[in-house]
Design brief:
Elements (H helix, E strand, L loop, with lengths): L12 H10 L6 H12 L16 H36 L4 H15 L2 H15 L12 H32 L2 H8 L4 H29 L3 H6 L5 H10 L3 H29 L1 H10 L1
Helix pairs in contact: 3-4, 3-6, 3-8, 4-6, 5-6, 6-8, 8-11, 10-11, 11-12
């Protein structure tokens, strides 16, 4: 991006030169890069240039990241749980009113942006009924998480419900389900142990990137509810050319994504023992 962290017109060229020297920006890019990487692996992400001058980046992120992670966790938990139930119900009661209702909810969740849900929930339950605070408040911390989490969970809910329904329908019509029924396995045990377990791998695959997206904060939702999370911090850093903050958050996003995908790969083997056996046979 054009410009620099020191775009203030009041600064003279001499002052800018001194600032560049102070923060090591006057050195060659290669030197800056390796010095930054070396410091980064020691937990030193540098300091903020504009947002909070000379404040360590780790301190800024430590204040905001837990809030975004908590809201993201609640969103994933609510969305995955309800979506899984809706998908199972839709598959079991295929071509009934329950299937139609679950499909309608899924279409609405995918089609309508999260900020529309946020505004509607804020107006109804925050402004009119006053059940929850309209803006994030440390005095009512748990209540402040409710509306943002529900707003963010709708897309996850809809996505999981759709995939669960599709995979469950395929599983219920498969030969191994007929074999299980012939052995006298019925009801909840048949659905959970045989049908659901075989549908979890594609569901986990879809859920993994959604977890990272939600846990790293949603700018629009954070703006609507005035949440001091990392999403708003990132955009503020980009607009103010606060490079250290941008790079630090990008690194954290990447690290979280790698960890989540590693956990997903491990879950594959836990969910489906055939994957472990296949890997062992290849070795």
């Amino acid at each position: 991006m054009p410009g620099s962290p020191f775009n203030d017109e009041k600064l003279s060229e001499e002052q800018k030169t001194l600032l560049y020297a102070k923060y090591g920006l006057d050195k060659p890019v290669v030197v800056q890069f390796f010095k930054y990487v070396a410091n980064m692996f020691q937990g030193d992400f540098g300091v903020s240039y504009n947002i909070s001058k000379n404040t360590p980046i780790s301190q800024l992120i430590a204040q905001r990241l837990p809030i975004s992670i908590k809201i993201g966790f609640f969103s994933v938990f609510i969305g995955a749980l309800i979506g899984l139930v809706l998908g199972i119900v839709a598959a079991i009661f295929h071509n009934t009113i329950w299937d139609t209702l679950a499909t309608i909810i899924s279409v609405i969740g995918v089609s309508i942006p999260s900020y529309v849900f946020a505004l509607a929930l804020s107006y109804q339950f925050g402004f009119k009924l006053k059940w929850f605070p309209m803006l994030f408040s440390t005095a009512h911390l748990f209540k402040s998480y409710v509306l943002p989490s529900i707003s963010l969970c709708m897309f996850t809910l809809a996505s999981i419900a759709r995939f669960t329904r599709t995979e469950m329908l395929e599983a219920l019509s498969s030969d191994y389900m007929q074999l299980a029924e012939s052995k006298g396995i019925y009801g909840v045990k048949l659905i959970v142990r045989h049908a659901l377990r075989n549908t979890l791998i594609p569901i986990v695959t879809v859920l993994a990137p959604l977890i990272v997206d939600l846990m790293t904060g949603s700018l629009v939702i954070e703006k609507i509810f005035s949440i001091p999370g990392v999403g708003s911090l990132l955009v503020t850093a980009i607009t103010s050319n606060d490079y250290n903050v941008v790079v630090s958050l990008s690194f954290i996003y990447s690290a979280m994504y790698i960890v989540i995908m590693l956990v997903v790969d491990i879950l594959y083997g836990i969910i489906d023992p055939r994957i472990r056996l296949q890997g062992a046979s290849n070795d």
